[in-house]
Amino acid sequence: MSNFRSISIDIKGRTAWVGAGATVGEAYNSIYEANSNLGFPAAYCPTVGIGGHISGGGYGPLVRQFGLATDNVIDANGRVLDRKSMGEDLFWAIRGGDGASFAVILGYKLKLVEIPEKVTAFSINRTWEQNATQLLYKWQYIAPKLPLNLVITPQIVSINSNQTGKRTVQVTFVSVFRGKVDELLSIMNQQFPELGLKKEDCTEMLWIQYFAYAGGLPTSNIKEFLTSRVSSTKLYYNAKSDFVKEPIPEKEIEEILRKLNELPPFVGMLEWNHFGGGVMETIPESSLICFVS
Ligand SMILES: Cc1cc2nc3c(=O)[nH]c(=O)nc-3n(C[C@H](O)[C@H](O)[C@H](O)COP(=O)(O)OP(=O)(O)OC[C@H]3O[C@@H](n4cnc5c(N)ncnc54)[C@H](O)[C@@H]3O)c2cc1C
């Protein structure tokens, strides 16, 4: 499929035909080069393939406002069928029914969404000793209420503390706000003052740079980062996703951190993504999604 990776953008119609063999990063880069105020709601990781990603759902930092990648597919293209000739049932199934179950997709027509060119991001660490349990507990309650242009994704790992040299658990709150720093600080002071976010923790950057920043990677040379079809980090892991519909009690979070703390540093990680309080609650088709990693 890797040869089916042409990308053509219709700026006026705010759509893009993207070959199924293109990566998400190649699509992000082409859309940005065509118009820096347009984007597509899909994965955090740019090396993910459009074909498998859209076949399985596809979530990323725009999910709360615009839904899954799948929810933003308008048409699909193949040797024999397009949306009209395949009919609405098959068109529904190929957007979330898991890759290769129903058809081989040659390309997708995507609906593009409006994005400010510049965003504000932060990534701050809080250890177990710095109230990580209580912060995670509170995050569950504020996350669905945050404005749709703000996502905060806690990443939880065990580390060896710089201060004590002893094993502890660290939560990194990684966030992107599609707005200015002062507005972000005002929201955070009202909704999540316990995190103690300061102006100096925040960085203004291009929207597309966030995909490198969120992975803890350099944001310079972003075009190369997005269009490289090979991951810059050689990190091999198994991942499993689940949905939590009720807040986890504080003592259970404490138990999760205790379990993670038993693992060697950076072996085992939890990433919490918030889907609630946005468009995901209004899209019934999205119940189809499954994440394959
Ligand atoms: C490092 C990493 C980061 C990730 N980050 C995210 C994320 O942020 N958000 C998210 O939602 N998911 C994420 N994922 C999961 C990712 O979306 C899935 O693993 C997806 O299936 C990858 O698709 P692929 O085409 O790259 O993989 P492949 O292994 O090539 O394909 C996966 C499946 O889709 C089928 N398939 C591929 N192309 C087509 C096609 N054209 N027509 C029909 N079937 C096809 C394949 O047969 C296979 O069954 C991540 C995965 C990795 C490895």
UniProtKB/TrEMBL annotation:
Gene3D superfamilies: 3.30.465.10, 3.40.462.20. Coiled coil: none annotated. Residues 1-115 form the FAD-binding PCMH-type domain. It comes from the Eukaryota. SUPFAM superfamilies: FAD-binding/transporter-associated domain-like. GO terms for molecular function: FAD binding. PANTHER family: OS08G0158400 PROTEIN. This is FAD-binding PCMH-type domain-containing protein. It comes from Coffea canephora (Robusta coffee). The lineage of its organism: Eukaryota, Viridiplantae, Streptophyta, Embryophyta, Tracheophyta.
